[in-house]
Amino acid sequence: MAKDVDPIPIDALVDSIDVVEHHSSTAFEDQGDPAKHHFERVLVQPVTKKQVTGGSGEAAFMQHLGNTVVFIDALNSVNADSYSIKLGDTVNYPGGSGQVVQIDALKAWLPTPHHWEVWLA
After folding, report:
1. For the chain, what is the domain count?
2. What is the pLDDT of residues 47-70, one digit of tens each?
3. Is 29 within the bounds of a domain?
4. Are 85 and 99 in contact (CB under 8 A)?
């Protein structure tokens, strides 16, 4: 049986976030206020994520993809209602907020995620 790597240490998970569910603007019925979900023991890090798109040479250009990443550990982060963050959700964190533009579930040796990296723009 494969042994997984250690979780992200609790001492490194110093932030909390609130996630507001995304509601489609094309919905016809009144959906009320969007639901909010609280996560504790996560890590919010400022980053700059860019990607070359449009081909190569003069056709290529840099596309800005995100400015913040949130690390959510599978074992040590607290997600009381077991909500799965989705593209388009809004994440509020101390000092700012952003919309979810990418979610990476990263595995080590076991088939279940070790942690998630949630990219915000």
Report:
1. 1
2. 987 777 777 777 777 777 779 999
3. no
4. no
